[in-house]
Amino acid sequence: SYAVSRRIEPFYKGGRIQFSRDGKFMFCPCGTRLNIIDVETGALESLQQDEEEDITSFVLSPNDEMLVTGSRALLLKQWSWQEKKCARTWRAVHVAPVASMAFDATSTLLATGGCDSTIKIWDMVKQYCTHNLKGSSGVVHLVEFHPDPSCLQLFSSSMDYRVRVWDLGSGRCLAALEGHFSAVTSLAFTDTHTLLSSGRDKICMVWDLKTGESKRTVPVYESVEAAVLLPEKGDFSQLGVKKQGLHFITAGSKGILKVWEVATAACVYSQPVPFALQEEASERSLTQCLLLPQRNEIVTVSVEHNIVLYDAQTLQLKKQLAGYNDEVLDVKFLGPGDSHIVVATNSPQLKVFELATSHCQILYGHTETVLALDVFRKGLMFVSCAKDKSLRVWRMNKEGRVTCVAQGLGHAHGVGAVSCSRLKESFIVTSSQDCTIKIWNIPDTLTSKAKAALISSPETLHARVTERGHNKDVNSVAVSPNDKLIATGSQDRLAKLWSSAECSLLGVFTGHKRGIWCVQFSPVDQVLATSSADGTLKLWGLRDFSCLKTFEGHDASVLKIIFVSRGTQLLSSGSDGLLKLWTIKTNECVKTLDGHEDKIWGLHSNKQDDMVVTASSDSCITLWKDVTEIEEKEAQAKQEEQIIKEQELSNLLHEKRYLKALGLAISLDRPHTVLMVVKAILKETDGRKHLEENILRLRKDQKEAVLTFLVTWNTNSRNCHEAQAVIETLLKHEAPESLLQYSGIKPAVESLLPYT
């Protein structure tokens, strides 16, 4: 049996993120939730808004104590985020959602910029709105207070591309800084009189706030989403900073960080990246960049929802988190101790997650969506295949870094399934929508560690043999545990067995009524398992190609199957989001696990056979741990407790301690035993009186239980006198008002009336 040990679900789907002052926690909006992530461990907790209340913006106060969220319901909420409690809710007074928020340096004033072109200032201590600033046009998407609290000024920008300066003393607009020709995306203060602004018009501007004039315009040749000033203290020589003076970092549409010197308007450093740069915006473009002084790190957020932390002095990658996975198409355990998982999401990049820290590496190489994965036995080398008609071989080094060591081209269509040799790292089998299967040999240069370390660019693999295997798409391939056989399953409803040496056909398995999604060899027997869109799983003998068993129970297509419990059980995943565990010997489904909302495309167990990972179209990855032993122990403990209580009950009856006996029988939920106790009391001399005393000393919940029991006794002529005796006691001593408070009193009275 399995239970969920961990879920990796989307925690960020766009919008601005923030960090706590010490940099330990990261705040990410995700629909109606605001997720709080521990940066070191990746542990996640959420502040949950009501339904209908998608978060449109949020802000954390500089003193780290207050968090305010604005939602589509036009409400503002103040949270004590450490306790996960909402402290208060009030109406935003804006007539459209709040698009931006900012606290002042003292954490007492909050500014909210709305989609209704107004800005409101709130006094957070006295809890009222102090200003309503009008005059902007369109959405106010940027508000910032002047960093000096004594200088009561607010800066804002809206859809007219100007930066407005508001005086909070008089509530008037002091100046509108004109110079940008597209949306202003960020504002940063160098000192009390100098402001840096960045825009989507591919320039950054430095303003003198005393005169309201532009001091310098720096053309950066890309649409900028964020400009961050480098601190004056600190050694940034590795980022090209050679002289004193202002330097800043930009992040934008090209997806890389650049360092600029204000005095010369020159780019002094460009970050090297593992992908080709594009001029226009793409999924690699950066949407945000922050400096975390406490951690000495720079954070970037990309359109693909990847959050990356770099060392501030060197821009060395420290940690990477994936906020959103889209549909997950396959997942496998990776690493010698199954310490990582590799995930194919609906994109050309692969993601490798370290389970202990949630650190995510992103592997570039494929040019279209990756469709399937398989890992070699040792767990260090794995293969991916994609819609771009290619396969790639990747290798993980001791530090856990993954590089591409080989690639193979040759299929005419997307490569949909891949399987690795089981004994040694000697060959790979792929199958494609072009109805062929190909076998690729792995050269020695890749398998020996010494030579693999010297590979600078991926080697090219060539297919040793190609065979047209089926008349329709081949959905699945598998290699037998001894590497001698290959099985394929296809949309043409057939599974076929091939010899791996020269790819000659050995036999055909016919019997499924719909296309076959998955084929898998048993690790212990000469048996092949197949699963199909007809909702069944079948086991086949490899000697005579006959069907040995059929497992029925899924209501939808069965997409993946694996053998677990050393080959004695099968685990299958369906397109309805359910997992089923089957015992092969008895042919029965022993457990159904509901862990996903949508098709489960990925299913894999670790080498120890005590963990399973599943991945689904609902963007979630779930890790399941084997809890058979724990469940058995719990059941045994329960049984022992029951036996002890029953023994105690018979002792109490023997000693005529009726009140305790009644209480125990009620707690064990034994109506018949309660009746026996009542009968025993009535047999005593003065039985009625004793019964009254005992019934009246019961707690209210115990009386309610007795009431439900006696409804049944009352329908039987043998037991109705006892039932009537208890009813009489209740009616005599309980006021009608208190009887009406009993749970289930109405059905009880309705059932008692006809027999009383």
From TrEMBL:
Q: GO molecular function of the protein, one example?
A: U3 snoRNA binding
Keyword list, A-Z:
Nucleus, Repeat, WD repeat
Quote the cellular component terms of the Gene Ontology held in the record: 90S preribosome; small-subunit processome
The record's InterPro entries line, in alphabetical order, gives: Utp13_C, WD40/YVTN_repeat-like_dom_sf, WD40_PAC1, WD40_repeat_CS, WD40_repeat_dom_sf, WD40_rpt
Where is this protein localized, as stated in its record?
Nucleus, Nucleolus
Q: Where are the WD repeats?
A: 91-124, 133-176, 177-217, 363-404, 408-442, 467-499, 509-550, 551-592, 593-625
Spell out the CDD domains in the cross-references.
WD40
Keyword Cell cycle in the entry? The reply is no
One of the GO biological process terms? endonucleolytic cleavage in 5'-ETS of tricistronic rRNA transcript (SSU-rRNA, 5.8S rRNA, LSU-rRNA)
Keyword Repeat among UniProt keywords: yes
Major subcellular site: nucleus
Q: Which domain of life is it from?
A: Eukaryota
Positions the record marks as coiled coil are: none
Please report the stretch or stretches of sequence annotated as the U3 small nucleolar RNA-associated protein 13 C-terminal domain.
646-756
Official protein name in the record: Transducin beta-like 3
Q: Where does this protein come from, organism-wise?
A: Merops nubicus (Northern carmine bee-eater)
